[in-house]
Amino acid sequence: MLEKVMTTTKIVQMDSLSARELERLIFYCGGSGAKVAVIEDNRAFELRDRMLDELNSIKEIIRLNKVFPDPKVADIMEMADSIAGKGINIIIGIGGGSTMDSAKGVAAVLSNGGDLEDYLGNTPLRKIEKKSIKLILIPTTAGTGAEVTKFGVYTARTGRKYTLNNTLLQADIALLVSEYTYNLPAPLTAATTFDALSHALETLWNRNATEVSDRLAIEAAIYILRWMEVAYDNPVEGRREMLQGACTAGIAFNMTGTAAVHALSFILSEEWHIPHGVACAFTLEDVMRLNMQDENTRRKLLAVAHGVFGEGAEEPLLEGLFHRIVELKRKFRLPFTFADINVGLSAAELSPLFEKSLDDPKMSNNIVPVDMKIVKEIIAAKSL
Ligand SMILES: [Fe+2]
Predict the structure, then answer these.
(1) What's the 277 CA to ligand 1 centre distance in angstroms?
(2) Tell me, what's the pLDDT at 48?
(3) 144 C-alpha to ligand 1 centroid (Å)
(4) How far apart are CA 378 and CA 33, in angstroms?
(5) If you average pLDDT over every residue of the chain, what do you get?
């Protein structure tokens, strides 16, 4: 209910999407003279390809696929340069978080000019000042919530990952098409569902939390925890619900930003190219335990536990929630230790690499302040 007013993105949930329907939407956004570029990844995906081939036969589109995990500024600039000056006024992004972030990046550069790298960092050279051209995002995983957020995550030419945070980046329309998430392989389902769960929980243990963001995030966390295992076990069942849960979590963290789990995950992705959802799952139980020291966060997590398990006493419910997450991580074959991600460094060697996570604005969102002592404790626990 609240979702409708908490995002500027128009959200439509549907089981399937035809080329005719997308063409009508393009007309609605840009009239008969609309010029469209589609950003997609380069893996074969029959459902998407069939629909786009048919769309292209009705209305000419430009398809770009220089999209990889942890999207790089150079790839986004290459795509933007290839269509600059061609009058493109609608960008459609179809894919996972990296694809949708790439689409956001291309749309932002086309509207604002310059190089995407100039907009990144704590003291950027330029600021996004113009609303991106019309942007339609269609997720094919249920995790990042990028279809409804104002964030884009980009790897600069230096190799550092940065979050670009600006409401002008936000998509105009998000289409949640269930069948695009059917048959998602188990490892991808594991990573993306844990990303969505991290978004909901990081909204709760967040300094920017409000009563409204809490309400949305509690609802999202309960929904995701109810459906993530079903989606993991089934090619079709639970997929529609996970798309909805990930989208709701996206709307929630769009209001607060993320926190320590995400700040630490960026180092794992920068240093060892750990996929985003896996990198979030890596420290989720450690950061949850840390934030359970905060009374207000305990109260919020208790509301989640009530929604998942029903009534009960505080302590067993909170512990039950913690262990449920650990159990799901284990079942989904997600990593708990540095050895699990094939990193053979000692705790002493790892610590300096994680120091820069403290400069990440996301880290300061964490409700329990995180300093190097806490980061070292988390690293030590994962190095045993
Ligand atoms: Fe995330």
Answers:
(1) 6
(2) 96
(3) 5
(4) 55
(5) 95
**Which CATH number is 325's domain given?**
1.20.1090.10
Phi, psi of 253 (to 5 degrees): -75, -15
Q: Which domain holds residue 70?
A: 3-181
- Among 141, 166, 181, residue at a domain's last position: 181
Residues of the chain with pLDDT under 50: none
- Give the Å distance between the CA of 133 and the centre of ligand 1: 24
- Structural domains of the chain, count: 2
**Residues, Cβ < 5 Å to ion ligand 1:** 195
308 contacts 324 by C-beta, under 8 angstroms: yes
Q: Are residues 34 and 57 in the same domain?
A: yes
- CA 3 / ligand 1 centre spacing (Å): 19
Tell me: do 57 and 121 sit in the same domain: yes
What is the DSSP track for 122-176? SS-SS---SPPSEEEEEESSSS--GGG-SEEEEE-TTS-EEEEE-GGG--SEEEE
How many beta carbons lie within 10 A of that of residue 175, not counting itself? 22
Distance from residue 56's CA to the centre of ligand 1 (Å) = 32
Identify how many contiguous H helices and E strands the chain contains and give both numbers: 15, 8
pLDDT at residue number 354: 97
Last residue of one domain, picked from the residues 146, 181, 216: 181
The pTM assigned to this predicted structure is: 0.94
Task: Say yes or no: 98 and 238 in one domain.
Answer: no
Do 108 and 128 fall into the same domain? yes
Q: Compute the distance from residue 173 Cα to the ligand 1 centre, in Å.
A: 20
Distance between Cα 188 and ligand 1 center (Å) = 14
Report how far ligand 1's centroid is from the alpha carbon of 90 (Å). 26
